């Protein structure tokens, strides 16, 4: 069972995808709608490897603390490992 905030976010992303004709929002909504065991899990090292300086990174899942960031990034994720808190 998903919480109400997550369900609301998924609905808003799907709505925004249709209104703005942006497939990315629908893809993120679809990924967030998966069960927690099937959501994406990404290490900082992978984000650092593929993102460019000043990028905005969206992770529709959990960000783990393995690795380091050497760039200034904005990361939006559903969840972060406890190390970040």
Protein described:
The chain is α/β, with parallel strands linked by helices and 85 residues long. The protein has two domains: 33 residues, no CATH class; 48 residues, Ribosomal Protein L15, Chain: K, domain 2, CATH 3.100.10. The protein is 40% helix and 24% strand. Helix 3 links the parallel strand 1 and strand 2. Helix 1 packs antiparallel against helix 2. It is globular and about 35 Å long. The two termini are 25 Å apart. The mean pLDDT is 93.
What can be said about this structure in brief?
It contains three helices and three strands; from the N terminus they run ααβαββ.
SSE layout:
Elements: H1 4-20, H2 23-32, E1 40-43, H3 44-50, E2 56-64, E3 74-80
Parallel strand pairs: 1-2, 2-3
InterPro entries: Ribosomal_uL15/eL18_sf (IPR036227)
Keywords: Ribonucleoprotein, Ribosomal protein
Protein name: 50S ribosomal protein L18e
- Compressed to H and E, one letter per element, the order equals HHEHEE
Number of helices: 3
Mean pLDDT over the full residue set:
93
The total tally of domains equals: 2
Keywords: Ribonucleoprotein, Ribosomal protein
Protein name: 50S ribosomal protein L18e
InterPro entries: Ribosomal_uL15/eL18_sf
């Amino acid at each position: 069972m998903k919480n109400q905030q997550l369900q609301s976010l998924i609905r808003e992303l799907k709505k925004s995808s249709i209104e703005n004709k942006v497939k990315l929002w629908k893809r993120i909504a679809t990924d967030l709608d998966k069960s927690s065991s099937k959501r994406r899990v990404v290490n900082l090292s992978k984000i650092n490897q593929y993102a460019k300086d000043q990028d905005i990174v969206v992770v529709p899942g959990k960000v783990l603390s393995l690795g380091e960031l050497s760039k200034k990034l904005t990361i939006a994720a559903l969840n972060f490992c406890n190390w970040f808190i």
